[in-house]
Amino acid sequence: MDFQHKHTFVSRLAESARMLAQYPSRVPLIVQAHPHTNAPPIDKAKYLVPRDLTLGQFLHCLRTRLKLHESIALFLLVNGELLPMSRLAGSVYETKSDPDGFLYVAYSTESAFGAETVG
User: Fold this and answer.
1) 42 occurs within a structural domain
2) Domain limits at 107?
3) Predicted model pTM
């Protein structure tokens, strides 16, 4: 992902450790558009979310931030895998986080209900 190329492993590890020490009830996420999608770019890549937030709740926050039209479906992928939206961020973090201490989440969009792609 782009964030990994812009920052060294050591700096990412130090930043995630600082975030986890300061906010132990939250998990650090890096959110970026999937490289093989025409999803709109997001203005903010780093998030610190509560461990008990579901992926579905986080997806709703991203939909709002991206200002997606209702006919556009939004998907979250962690390590290239679609996960149930009922999973808690803390649970996903414990099993899927990167060695640098961040959980990398890619998002992708798709036209739904036969609608034309809306930006």
Assistant:
1) yes
2) 2-111
3) 0.87
Residue 79 and residue 6 in contact, taking contact as beta carbons nearer than 8 Å: no
How many CB atoms neighbour CB 22 within 10 A? 9
Write the pLDDT tens digit of every residue in 71-114.
Answer: 889 999 998 899 999 999 999 999 999 999 999 999 999 877 65
Q: What are phi and psi of 71, to 5 degrees?
A: -85, 0
The CATH number for 49's domain is 3.10.20.90
Beta strands in the chain (DSSP E): 26-33, 46-50, 72-78, 81-82, 103-111
Domain count, the chain: 1
Q: Which of 57, 41, 61, 54 is nearest to 108 (CA)?
A: 41
Q: How far apart are CA 44 and CA 32, in angstroms?
A: 9
- What are 6-31's pLDDT values in tens digits? 999 999 999 999 999 999 999 999 99
Which two tokens mark 90?
A: 């803390």
All residues at 6 or more sequence positions from 33 whose CB lies less than 8 Å from its CB, including other chains? 39, 40, 41, 42, 106, 107, 108
Residue 36 maps to a domain: yes
